[in-house]
Amino acid sequence: MSFDEKVWKVLSKIPPGKVATYGQVASAAGSPRAFRAAGNACNKNPNSPRVPCHRVVSSSGSLGGYAHGPARKIKLLKAEGISVKNNKILNFDKVLVKEKELKA
DNA sequence: AGTAAGGCGGGCA
DNA sequence: GTGCCCGCCTTAC
């Protein structure tokens, strides 16, 4: 299985209304330092609606980036019940999923 | 706050 | 098979 597939799998493990950092995803994917490669996997993500790449944010709580456009990401996040302001997650610590959950 | 450097996997030459 | 560049990042200066 390619790293990308691992990442997508982890992303799909993110519960609705929650978000995860690329670091957590990368860690759950097997390489805690591959946050960049993890994000890259999302970018190449062939199933954008199936894989919630929009639920992944940067470690600082910022949205980070999005292949379909940041506005789309915000829209999806808000649809999930996550409040986003100025490209920043408001209740970041409250919507942040536990890395343990990703590994589950 | 902004800028620069860094480690990781994938794709292309 | 090897080497180089790239990317939805992260950390440090």
What order do the helices and strands come in, and which of them pair?
Blueprint: H1 3-12, E1 20-21, H2 22-29, H3 35-44, E2 56-57, H4 70-80, E3 84-85, E4 88-89, H5 92-95, H6 99-103
Parallel strand pairs: 1-2
Antiparallel strand pairs: 3-4
The structure holds a DNA duplex (13 and 13 nucleotides).
Mean pLDDT: 92
Envelope shape = globular
**Could you say which structural class the secondary elements and strand pairing correspond to?**
mainly alpha
How much of the sequence lies in strands comes to 5-15%
What is the helix content?
A: 40-55%
Summarize the main sheet.
Answer: 2 strands, parallel
Strand order of the largest sheet: 1-2
**Helix segment count?**
6
Give the N-terminus to C-terminus distance in angstroms. 18 Å
Q: Taking Cα atoms only, what radius of gyration do you get, to the nearest Å? A: 12 Å
As residue ranges, the low-confidence spans are none
Element-by-element helix/strand order = HEHHEHEEHH
Q: Would you report the number of β strands? A: 4
Short overview:
This protein is mostly helical.
Structural commentary:
46% of the residues lie in helices and 8% in strands. The protein contains 6 helices and 4 strands. It has helices at 3-12, 22-29, 35-44, 70-80, 92-95, 99-103; strands at residues 20-21, 56-57, 84-85, 88-89. It has a two-stranded parallel sheet with strand order 1-2. The chain has a two-stranded antiparallel ribbon with strand order 3-4. It is globular and about 35 Å long. The structure holds a DNA duplex (13 and 13 nucleotides).
Task: Please describe the structure with a list of short key phrases separated by commas or semicolons.
6 helices; mainly alpha; DNA-binding; 104 residues; 46% helix; 4 strands
